[in-house]
Design brief:
Glutaredoxin, 6 strands
């Protein structure tokens, strides 16, 4: 099993197979524009700029399941991310990350790396690190600063 068997709609409405990222280290994050953790977009962008040439991709999936902290349209979300945080990593359309209607990718991620609430995602900005083979290797809590993940990213970028 790997994340490569899934696809998702980009923020601009195109269906994108995650197999397009095969061979890269992925950091998959459920995001929101009106969350206390929203400033993590800045650190995520810093990670992306630092490591993308070495094989990192950050994939952001906006989600409105936690206190309606992502109420905007795809266009509004994209504009917010670009103007407020200069985000250049891939953004996807809003998804559900928990419950019976959760996107299949997030069902896989949470089954592969349960957290404090088991297979549930606790809040926005839960992060999943995926190795070059598409396997989930670590899950990070929403409050974990993306900068604190840098060492783990470097470690996985060194592995084939």
């Amino acid at each position: 099993m790997s994340v490569y068997r899934f696809s998702a709609r980009t923020i601009t409405g195109e269906e994108k197979s995650l197999s397009d990222y095969e061979g890269r280290v992925l950091l998959i994050v459920n995001t929101a524009s009106r969350c206390g953790f929203t400033p993590q977009y800045r650190e995520l962008q810093e990670l992306y700029e630092t490591y993308r040439d070495r094989g990192l991709e950050i994939l952001a999936f906006p989600c409105n399941q936690f206190a309606n902290q992502e109420p905007g349209s795809e266009e509004e979300i994209q504009k917010f991310c670009e103007t407020q945080y200069n985000v250049t990593f891939p953004l996807f359309s809003k998804v559900k990350v928990k419950g019976p209607d959760a996107h299949p990718l997030f069902k896989y991620l949470t089954e592969s790396a349960p957290g404090m609430l088991g297979k549930e995602i606790k809040w926005n900005f839960t992060k999943f690190l995926v190795n070059r083979r598409g396997e989930v290797v670590k899950r990070y809590a929403p409050q974990t600063s993306p900068r604190r993940i840098a060492r783990d990213i470097e470690e996985w970028l060194e592995k084939p």
